[in-house]
Design goal:
This protein has 428 residues and is α/β, with parallel strands linked by helices. It is 41% helix and 14% strand. The longest helix has 27 residues. It binds pyridoxal-5'-phosphate. The site of pyridoxal-5'-phosphate (PLP) has 13 residues, from helix 4.
Length: 428
């Protein structure tokens, strides 16, 4: 078997870890091409939540069995997240209701940096979760907001961004990948340039990057990074990474008797134990995936968990690139008079994109297209601005359809998408 076939077959077998991949909760057959709105949960996530329901306490502690297990879960989950993103320590990881909540929390914590005369940069490629918190705090404190617009391919104008960074810039908010058009930002290079020109903190929204690519915060070099469990095959939970060296500048909301040290100072009230257990279950799955992808050459050596996670996500990225290339190839058979795809990059640049595709069928509204895909093909896609309203405004659209693939999808699902698409545009 050739190398590509081995990888393809590996990921086909792996689909069995997702019990609701082919059938919805009522047992109806369907194709799920909506992972950008929330990925499917993996079996180990359900199992971990069930275990947690039976065995955990609300309060962590050091006396009863349940208290101890709860405290251990918190620590193990923080460690697993730290290893997943290459952080130095579990103390850099805190848990939140969602990424949006984590970023509003962070904005409040950094409020003292936002003063008249200071400025903050946000980009039009970002989800509003990484724009509105900074706009709100900048307006309240009298700091300037500088917007970075997009070019014709909907990539951020990098030269403009670097030009707008100066000694008065206190923060730059960047996305890892767009949740509408899938474009990936060249974070490492960008952040290096930003840091050469200023002491600005860099905040990265990695929600749409985390399910598709390895992330290494030491390599990337930002100060804060967020992502969401429900996009990473787990439950609803927001995760915030706060680099130890960057934390002294922050003053988070704090209940007086809460422990002042990180990560506890970032968290208000009791933690969502079931979601933390589910997140740990999802990360266990990714670790297992990485272990299965270890090459025979590396088998004899003991790899760090960070390395194993990296193998898993490199495998996912490679496989998803194949899906993207197949998708692009199928596009050639579609009449462009009837449909437009946005944010596409040529096949040879596919590495700078996750498998998320925005489109519009001219004959229908985005809401109608979503409904028709469901009625005619039992395919679930998305419609709307996807909370990335500056992207849709840049494209001069109120709403766009989006199909978003994940590593549990396959070529057959893409075929079904194009069959249904052809049916809609040619047999209206
Ligand atoms: C790129 C991106 N950032 C942030 C968010 C917000 O995440 P949450 O729903 O956890 O607040 C989303 C959710 O769709 C997203 O896609």
């Amino acid at each position: 078997m050739s190398e590509p076939d081995i990888i393809y077959n590996f990921f086909q077998q792996n689909r069995s870890h997702f019990p609701y991949l082919e059938k919805d909760s009522s047992g109806q057959k369907r194709i799920y091409l909506n992972s950008g709105a929330g990925s499917l949960m993996v079996d180990s996530c359900y199992q971990a939540i069930e275990m947690a329901l039976r065995n955990l306490n609300s309060m962590p502690g050091m006396v009863s069995n349940e208290e101890i297990q709860t405290a251990e879960l918190h620590q193990e989950a923080r460690k697993a997240v730290a290893d997943f993103i290459g952080a130095n320590s579990p103390e850099e990881i805190s848990f939140h209701f969602s990424t949006t909540a984590a970023l509003f929390n962070l904005a409040f914590a950094l409020r003292k940096l936002f003063q008249p005369g200071k400025n903050c940069l946000v980009t039009d490629l970002d989800h509003l979760a990484n724009i509105s918190p900074w706009e709100t705090i900048a307006q309240q404190q009298g700091a300037e907001i500088r917007r970075i617009h997009l070019n014709d391919e909907s990539q951020i104008l990098i030269d403009k961004l670097i030009e707008k960074v100066d000694r008065q810039t206190v923060l730059v908010a960047l996305t890892g990948a767009s949740n509408v058009i899938g474009i990936i930002n060249p974070l490492t290079d960008l952040i290096q340039e930003i840091k050469q020109k200023s002491d600005a903190l860099v905040v990265i929204d990695a929600v749409h990057l985390a399910p598709h690519s390895p992330i290494d915060v030491r390599e990337i070099g930002g100060d804060f990074l967020t992502f969401s469990g429900y996009k990473l095959f787990g439950p609803m939970i927001g995760i915030l990474y706060a680099r130890k060296e960057s934390q002294p500048l922050s003053f988070p909301y704090r209940v007086e008797t809460n422990r002042p040290q990180a990560p506890f100072c970032w968290e208000q009230g009791m933690l969502p134990n079931l979601a933390i257990a589910g997140l740990k279950g999802a990360l266990d799955y990714l670790e297992d995936l990485g272990n299965k992808l270890i090459s025979p050459r590396d088998k004899a050596t003991t790899l760090s968990r960070t390395r194993v996670f990296r193998l898993a996500m490199e495998g996912v990225k490679n496989y998803e690139q194949k899906l993207s290339l197949y998708f692009m190839k199928n596009l050639e058979r579609i009449d462009r008079q009837k449909i437009k795809f946005y944010g596409l990059v040529a096949g040879n640049k596919i590495v700078s994109k996750v498998p998320t595709f925005a489109f519009e069928i001219f004959d229908y509204s985005a809401a109608e297209t979503k409904r028709l895909f469901w009625e005619k093909g039992k395919i679930l896609i998305a419609d709307g601005n996807h909370y990335s309203a500056f992207v849709t405004r840049h494209l001069k659209k109120e709403a766009l359809n989006r199909l978003s693939l994940a590593h549990y999808d396959n070529l057959e699902a893409i075929d079904r998408f194009f069959d249904t698409l052809e049916n809609l545009i040619y047999k209206k």
